[in-house]
Amino acid sequence: MLKAENISKSFIDRSSGKTFELLHDVSLEIKAGEAVALMGGSGSGKSTLARILLRLLSCDSGKIYFQGQNITQATGKDLSIFRRNVQFISQRPESFLDPRQKLGSSLREAFIVFNLPYDEEKIKEMLDLVKLNAELLQRYPHQVSGGEIQRICLVRALLLEPKLLVLDEPTSMLDISVQAQILHLLRDIRREKQLAYLFITHDKQLAEWLCDRVLHIEQGQLK
Prior knowledge:
CATH topology: Rossmann fold
Helix content: 25-40%
Low-confidence stretches: none
Number of strands: 10
Mean pLDDT: 93
CATH architecture: 3-Layer(aba) Sandwich
Strand order of the largest sheet: 6-7-8-3-9-10
CATH class: Alpha Beta
Number of helices: 7
Largest sheet: 6 strands, mixed
């Protein structure tokens, strides 16, 4: 479903002015309904690779395919379709919500951005799925907990009926008890919606519990 071929990415070190290669000739494939974990230490390039796969960052070389279509340089409608189908869940979900907007308005934006008809019933269905009360939609981000914000971001992603979720350490900023709740929720959602996951983590035990395969990135390459 999502395939990357020979992805490389270099950056300039601001202190030395020298160029260093963070990713070198990385290739991977995520099949429909498959959960793949991407592990690596801090600075290994795992989050950079995720941003490239999401088309949030360009690569220096290589190609990205989604459902057989080359989307490396996609723009306009093709890029919009890709972004609807491949949704991102961050470790800092609050950064994806406007603090001036109530949570209900943030969910409404998901329909507006992708030119979809507003569907209140679908919102209710997804709120039930993530075990949230609709009353929360009348609150602002600062009025709810970190776990509730992460669930709202899940709802916003699921409203678009994506085929793949890219999850960048989605529980790392949450309390231990809340982490467990979100992780079990992610496992249940995947089973119910038959979603594919790219799950970025540094936790080997968690990766093996949630995912079908575990990939390791070291020195810019997959091992």
